[in-house]
């Protein structure tokens, strides 16, 4: 089994391995091999398109968690210039699970905030697997309030399984930190745009997701609890996570039907990790369009419309 590919992608992995083997043996004059490679590439592309056209909800969950899926620190250099990271919550510590700072986007100074999971074992530990402690949310609050003071739009990237549930987080009042974040965002007098890029888990996601516009990447997920957590509660067995995912309706298409998000952003065939640059271009277009619309509104209108949007969530169900 190729670990860079998910379980349902193993046939694609086999074709890609065959293509790579042919590339390593081909020479400039081996026309027949080049033609064979081209045919295999077309077959792989068609197979990938076919598989991804009929993903189950649980398979979407796996894509959202793909180890090579781009994180906020991957998107920042593709979307922004002059990024200056800001650290610390001015109360306790700097939480690596939340990244934030000032940047330029299409000649606009913006505040960028997002979850960062980490890739290597050391990075994952340093970032706490993208699960923020209270100081992470208090850092986000500080940066949002700074943006509000100077009139900078806020752009957030959501990708977390949830807020960290450890004893130390509870001792420092995790629930209060999340609640305060909701309050700060609800009252912020500047445009707020959120993109769910991977997992949008529970209050850990919502704490930086109270926005004027919120979009999800096509294969991202958004839910009040992880499928494993839901299965553990309902069936006392996390192995029923796939059933829970289907019942919860965590996929982007299902969330859009509920009216909880404003848009689903299409990903390249095979997911964002196959072409981060193309994914970033799609995100950039959405951010630019949304900023143009939101910057026409006064601070008072922004706050009023944001709060009305929140109050009407689920009213059409």
Provide key terms for this protein:
single chain; 317 residues; alpha/beta; 2-enoyl-CoA Hydratase, Chain A, domain 1; eight-stranded mixed beta sheet; 15% strand; globular
In short:
This protein is 49% helix and 15% strand. By secondary structure, the protein is α/β, with parallel strands linked by helices.
Write down how many β-strands occur, each being a DSSP E stretch of 2 or more residues. 8
Q: Termini, distance in Å?
A: 43 Å
Radius of gyration, CA atoms, in whole angstroms: 21 Å
Helix content bin: 40-55%
What's the domain count?
1
Largest sheet, strands/sense/barrel = 8 strands, mixed
Please name the CATH topology.
2-enoyl-CoA Hydratase, Chain A, domain 1
Q: Kindly report the name of the CATH homologous superfamily.
A: 2-enoyl-CoA Hydratase, Chain A, domain 1
Q: What's the CATH architecture?
A: Alpha-Beta Complex
Order of helices and strands: HHHHEEEHHEHHEHEEHHHEHH
Computed structural class: alpha/beta
CATH class (first level) name? Alpha Beta
Described by the principal axes of the CA atoms, the overall outline is globular
Q: Number of helical runs?
A: 14
